[in-house]
Amino acid sequence: MTISLFLAIVIVMGTLVVVTSIARLHRLQIHVAATSVPAPPKPYRDKRVSHTAHGAVDARGVWALAAQPRCFEEVRKSTGSPTYVRAHLPQQARRVPSGRTLFFGSCRVVIDGGSVIVLRGNERISVPAPAELYRTASRLYLLANGAAGGAELRAYKVISQP
Fold first, then answer.
1. What pLDDT digit, counting tens, does each position of 26-61 carry?
2. Which end of the chain is more exposed for a tag (fewer CB within 10 A), N or C?
3. Is the CB of residue 102 less than 8 Å from the CB of residue 96?
4. Strand partners, 15
5. pTM: predicted TM-score of the whole model, two decimal places
6. DSSP-assigned beta bridge partners for residue 145
7. What are the beta bridge partners of residue 153?
8. Among residues 76, 86, 78, 70, which one has the least CA distance to residue 140?
């Protein structure tokens, strides 16, 4: 009789332990947080920007006008499909034809065969073709292929030079 009583107690206690552990597993919340391992910084190497022997800059990018804060200030940017982006171009904007050179303070903007080239001192930054430059009375609009592959329209305010 003591053995059967002992076995009954073991069975009841074992069942309670199993049921309790199953109930707790359902309420168990595991949190995994990402951690970063510090690593020394790597040198930046952008193949679109090159420096010649005397510090001159020769670069390519749709951001060419934005890289000249003394001449231009970017005020708006639209990205997406060509149809969507062209809808943001003002109706009064007129395209600057190829072969023209525009002067804005110390900056020159050359429209050459579908590309736009911004020159200032020893800096030369070009927007690869196909790129189009539009002009209104107070703004410049650059329409080009964006970095993500879609069309990109950037609006710039011309900064007056003293």
1. 666 666 666 666 666 666 555 555 545 455 677 888
2. C
3. yes
4. none
5. 0.63
6. 151
7. 78, 143
8. 76
